[in-house]
């Protein structure tokens, strides 16, 4: 009687326990809901029979892991709850659970015949240990729940990798920063940026040369700065820049024409000072040519007693000089070398028996262009002569020497107006022209300068003022080393301005 009573009581207890477990365990986020209560009816009966057979031999234990209770004591899960359920027993939203709980592929990795531990099997859950990710009480685990922990800071499961949120920055160790941290570190934690992929490296010679560090600026060469080995001042640095500009390597021989129809305007001294400045900056390769159709005065302003150094002598030797095996030394025999300025000079004829024509200019120009890089041509006073016009056609840059005197400036203005009517090429030459103002003692007329300086500023590319120098005013042979420092500095500035305009002309398509 007692055994049957205990057996019936045990069956009732087991049935109540199964009902409570079914009610308290919500459906996990990765499983489908129960189709209905009828599906669990038959397994419950089978469990009751197996449990009833074992309880006869072991009355204090049960197959489900629940300890047997005295007959007169109700089950603890049948008592009403006096406190709200812990937060980890609440169901986790599907979006949150799927982002950090065990992935769906985890079921495929379990051994055959093994089922994930649930609340129905507390013994299996206990064996899983605190590090297990099996869901307990509503799909969440005690160690992986969201209570007091940021889901983005959770440790990823096996086979998963931390993903940086879109627009987020990596934090220390490569982990993504939280939204609050991203507010303070929008570009990432300093010194903790993720390693960037190496870019495609290029080993081209020109790119490697460009990547080399620039050479250090040389110390000052004059004044107190040179004694203290300091960097040059602004004046010396600008002079270095002008010297480097004057030494520009052009891609072909270039021609500079110095022209003003007014005699005594300073054409020859300006030609020699410009040639000397270019020769010193470039280290040679410059020739000054007196292209006067009759007789110029360059032979009076240069050093040398070479009696054959005239254009007439060179024209007579032209058949020999135009041979393919002709050398620079053969041509230099008809030139005057100026040591101070490192340039050569071709003077005009000393007699009036031979006049230079256009064909003569063309022969000499082609010959000098074979052996020299820069040709500085001094012209005569006759704009209608053929060699004067051929010089203008061959010019890459135009230098107009003037004095602040009414006659000198008036002749320059008339020449500009005449060239302006010669077509587009002449107009481009005017826009690239450089005005060289060289005044002798007492040559400056302040009123003329006040009226005409704005005109030349608007018509030409630049206006360079050359200070008065008594060595130039003496009208003797012009030695570049005998010029005043200010005069040499102005000549170098003139050479730099002209070189700039030549560079523009060579890079501008016609």
Automatic annotation (TrEMBL):
Q: Which GO terms describe its molecular function?
A: ATP binding; ATP hydrolysis activity
| Annotated Pfam families | AAA_31
Renumbered residue ranges of the record's region Disordered:
1-199
Q: What keywords is this UniProt entry annotated with?
A: Cell projection, Cilium, Flagellum
- Here the segments flagged for biased composition (Low complexity) are 111-144, 151-167
Q: Out of the domains of life, which is the source?
A: Bacteria
Do the record's keywords include Ribosomal protein?
no
Comp. bias regions, Acidic residues = 42-59
Task: Please name the GO terms of the biological process aspect recorded for this protein, alphabetically.
Answer: negative regulation of cell division
Tell me where in this chain the AAA domain is found. 255-420
Q: Which InterPro entries match?
A: AAA_dom, P-loop_NTPase, ParA/MinD_ATPase
GO cellular component terms, semicolon-separated? cytoplasmic side of plasma membrane; cytosol
Instruction: Enumerate composition-biased segments (Basic and acidic residues).
Output: 9-22
- The protein here is known as MinD-like ATPase involved in chromosome partitioning or flagellar assembly
